[in-house]
What does this fold into?
Amino acid sequence: MDIPFNVKERPDTGLYNGKLGIWLFLASEVMLFGGLFSAYIFLRTGVDNWPAGTEYLNVPLATLNTLFLISSSVTMVMSWASLKLNDFKKFKLYSGVTLLFAFGFLVIKYFEYTAKFSHHYYPSTNNFLGIYFTMTGLHVLHVLGGIIVIGYFFGPGSKMWNTDPERFTNRIEIVGLYWHFVDLVWIFLFPVLYLL
Amino acid sequence: MSEGHHKQSFWTKYIWSTDHKVIGIQYGITALVWLLFGFVLIAIMRYQIAYPGTPIPLIGSLLGPDGALPPETYNSMGAMHGTIMIFLGVVPLAFGAFGNYFVPLQIGAIDMAFPKLNAASYWMYFLGSVIMVIGFFVPGGAANSGWTSYPPLSNIATMGQTVWLWGMVMLITSSLLGSVNILATVIQLRADGMTWMKLPIFVWTQFITAFLLLLAFPPLEAAGVLQLMDRLAGTSFFMPSGLVVSGGGVYAGGGSPLLWQHLFWFLAHPEVYVLILPAFGIVTEVIANNTRKPIKGYRSLVYAMIFLGFMSFIVWAHHMYLTGMGTTIGAFFQTTTMIISIPSVVILTALLLSLWGGSIRFNTPMLFALGFLPMFGIGGLTGLPLGLAASDIHLHDTYYVIGHFHYVVAPGTIFALFAGIYYWFPKITGKRTNETLGKLHFYFSFIFMNGVFMPMFIQGLAGLSRRMNDGGETYAHAAGVIHLNEFMTISAWLLGVAQLFFIVNMIISLRSEKTGESNPWGATTIDWTDTTSPPLGHGNFEKVPTVYRGPYEYSVPNQKNDFLPQSQKG
It folds into this structure.
């Protein structure tokens, strides 16, 4: 016996199981990052002098990274839409580009981190850098997780398209939802850490 | 396993299973073992409290050079007792075991929505629990800053604290997977006709519990990440400026110990309701079944529980009145705390009124359920003075607090869990438990539970502080109440002995003949009426039933039986 609504939507909720699952997971993620953002506010309001992000951080590079992630979200949607339109080649193209953007993000992040370390800016230097490394570090882990999953469906996982295309399309939709969330977290992190 | 299924090896059937029932049993057995372990820890500690400095019989030589419990080990054991009982014992039993096993059965699902994630959830829990105990073997011993892990103490504590944090991260991941699964299962996999207002209360409680776990645990994960950074990367999130640590490193400072408390209690208050809601669910099922009448106020119960779940997110700082966070914030949290007591009273009143006019069957599960009501009542009512800042100033960090939450969790939740085990044992095994042993288990547990926890109120009101390895003998103001320590310790040890009735009962019952009854209690819910004969095979139902009526239609007039199954038409 198969579990109901694994692929097809349940009529009264309008969701298939996986989609509901990922939304619940993202709700939990909101609370995780919400906790960290709250901690940031709490720490910042608790001290007299809090450094401006621009004293330490490279705004142009981060702006470029923001563009990378937003673009990757767009290509992520396009890859899902391609599957909906039955165009597997376009799917490969768009998810490939998504991966490139994601890698680009990591490369820039790597240069940012090493630049900090070369100036002897460490998490232990002060709480601003501490929260910067903690939050962006956790975000980088999420990007890495996304790359692994998107990479899997770009490569070996894409075989499912031949056997169960609807389920495969659903999986890409779910990954996409996660990826947009990772993007969204960065859109909050960027102004809060770099600009304010 | 029912006939007609291909043969599976022991490993795929019992170890790497994705069947929700097997996972439920795995959760249940692991959690019971941890409960016993957590109890052994406190039994040793209570000996030290009652007879400070005296060598502990039999195992003393393992604990310290002179046979007595060293203060450092006492601290480790105290922190681990709390952690193990809550995170490895009660929650996995109430939510992991009962939720996994009976939520799909009660809503008419063949399995959970995500069976593989379900198995992953169990193994994460198992791994997390092993990591927790590895702490005992690292230099400096297990975490020793209390189960609350307050910094700055926990920041500078020995390595066991880092192990504790990694263990917590695993447990949080496990609970995330479990709660997503329960929520998706209840939302997506209800059988035809099983509308929200036809759900058994047990399912409602598990559903709300899952929401609490889903949303309350991540802030603790955030806090755990921050504390790991403090401990491993040298940040100062919880280290205030100007703190001098003898022999410690240099800290940039500028952090706030209070931040940890906010993040911690943001989890740990909803956690209280995670502990109690499944207990409400089990007790409701047992009471309705054994009074043979509908429970009073099904809708009131449901709405009260939803409201309780919502409110539980905005009461956390009532644990922090003494931290100097300010009277305005204190006033807000006092108000919300008084408000949250209302739904609890609604629930307890509904259950109490449900007894009215019933011809009650006093079997073992019912005795535990009936024991739950006054015990939880005492636990709840003694919480009110702690919720008000003025009286909390006197009672904070005394044994009164310990008495209060143990009444909620030990004779409260754990009694309900025992009720659940006795109640559903025939469904799981197809066998009956021994009633005499069950009743002895109840009566002795009931007496000794009160013997342990009731004197704590007296000691606490006299001002005796918690977490002291000598039981407070150096404090003059405690002199009048310190003699109670011995009484409590003896009660605790006897409470442990009383659990032998349970263990023996389980062994005897498991070895007994199958009775073959699939609905021995005459229950209405579809876990009893429509599943295949116990023990259940994969798939649970011959044919998933359609649901036509509410869950508690007992003693309906002019019917052949005194109960109408949910799946009975017309």
Summary: Residues 88-118 of chain A form the longest helix (31 residues). Residues 70 and 183 of chain A are 7 Å apart (CA to CA).
